[in-house]
């Protein structure tokens, strides 16, 4: 009698329902869920768990780990496991905008399934999410089957991420257009083909931020093209951005076309704070503005010993402070009449 009771799966589950803890196969899932840094690991574990047990064990998983119902739902939507979706009723009570989530993940079959229910939470932003991630097939599907109005961000987002084919489709088949953010951010991220397309086919143009941001990210080829084909130019922020990120070649290029442009003192301050010794040396050799106390303070605070040593060695000709007599920034050791 006793062995038959102990070997009964149904009785074992009944007994374990009144015991603390979870079933053995669910322990890795429960452990990973408790660590925010383990999101990718959790997704992989859940994928393996579902592959082994299938949807039939999900009710038991939700019984022991109720919070996993939402986790499994999002996993199903982002991985295209439509067979799991019918286990969630009603979907309308889900706080997540599932159409948007599916569109961002490129899961066209899930988008179709949700819209057929019908479930439309997240439809307003779905096209922008799909476009932003380069999912042209979903952008086309929503264009052909929905009439939801979009904002110009629907083109701004894919332009920023370099999805030229999406930008091209939106230009020819939709009317929302874009803003100057499209070219600005495409330039910032080095997507010259997108910049060229927008310049050739659109009228919105860009702002000085296009070159300022491209300089900060070291995209010299974009700077050269914009300088040759556009008139916006760049602001003093271009030098600061390039210096902050350690792009000496960009600084050389900026100096070539604007020898006295930019705030070189602030540029050296941020370069020193970020540990870019070559930038500090370049600015020291080619500019006369030097730096402020912030350069040495920042380099010390961030542990850039080589920069600290260089600034200490040349501080008499580099470091400027506010003169208490005239109120101007001057070298530490100076005479003010």
From TrEMBL:
Pfam families: Ank_2 (PF12796), Ank_4 (PF13637)
Alphabetized SMART domains for the sequence: ANK
Domain of life from the UniProt record: Eukaryota
Protein name: Uncharacterized protein
Native source organism of the sequence: Aphanomyces euteiches
Lineage of producing organism: Eukaryota, Sar, Stramenopiles, Oomycota, Saprolegniomycetes
